[in-house]
Design a protein that fits this description.
alpha/beta; Rossmann fold; two-stranded antiparallel sheet; 9 strands; 34% helix; globular
């Protein structure tokens, strides 16, 4: 597949993988929230804190299942994903919502334009040394008082994924330590509001973490 010279290989690999599995992923993940009270609780808290203060971006939205869930909780939410295949599924499944193809590394959003940003397992395909710039980009688009919620698998290792959702793929995923991610938030000028680490639930293999941060009303 042709890759523009300005695009890094891991972005192309991630896009290609999710394009390949888009339909199968959407089918398997469709009812995941129904079996995860922790996810529902964290997302519900995020939605209640953001409320009607402005638009929310589901960044790395995949097939749009959480975009749709946040909309059902009353948020003015839209989705952005690197994978055109995922965006196509999201638009088909939630035609009343807005979805765009785009990169979290260079969001086509004005500074301070979001009241909330969701990065739900969407930091995990970026090499850790490139995460400071990514988190800074998320902080850029948050309005003062805006909130960022992220979720990820806990650990220190890089995993190469060659099989997923019944397809052959080739891309990497990184497990992260909560202290490391919290430090990225602080370096980007965000204030950590909450941290939750829970035990794995089948079929998970490792603990899962949720971090919620807020952009201060005045720069530090």
């Amino acid at each position: 597949m042709f890759r523009p010279v300005t695009e890094l290989a891991y972005l192309t690999d991630t896009r290609t993988a999710y394009d390949t599995v888009a339909d199968a992923y959407a089918e398997e993940a469709r009812d995941a929230l129904a079996t995860s009270p922790w996810d529902r609780a964290v997302l519900g808290t995020f939605a209640e804190l953001v409320g009607d203060t402005g638009p929310v971006g589901d960044l790395g939205c995949g097939p749009g299942r959480l975009t749709g869930h946040l909309a059902s909780l009353g948020l003015d939410v839209f989705g952005v994903d690197l994978s055109p295949g995922m965006v196509s599924v999201a638009r088909r499944t939630y035609p009343e919502l807005r979805f765009e193809v785009g990169s979290m590394h260079a969001l086509e959003l004005e500074d301070g334009s979001l009241a909330g940003a969701l990065a739900w397992y969407s930091l995990i395909h970026t090499p850790p040394e490139r995460l400071p710039a990514l988190v800074a980009e998320l902080a850029r688009v948050l309005a003062p008082g805006g909130r960022l919620l992220t979720a990820f698998q806990v650990g220190d290792e890089r995993r190469h994924i060659s099989q997923g959702y019944g397809h052959e793929v080739s891309f990497d995923a990184y497990r992260l330590q909560p202290d490391f991610v919290a430090g990225l938030f602080e370096d980007a000028g965000l204030e950590l509001e909450a941290r939750l680490v829970r035990a794995p639930q089948e079929p998970e293999k490792v603990p899962q973490a949720y971090l919620l941060a807020r952009k201060p009303q005045r720069p530090k």
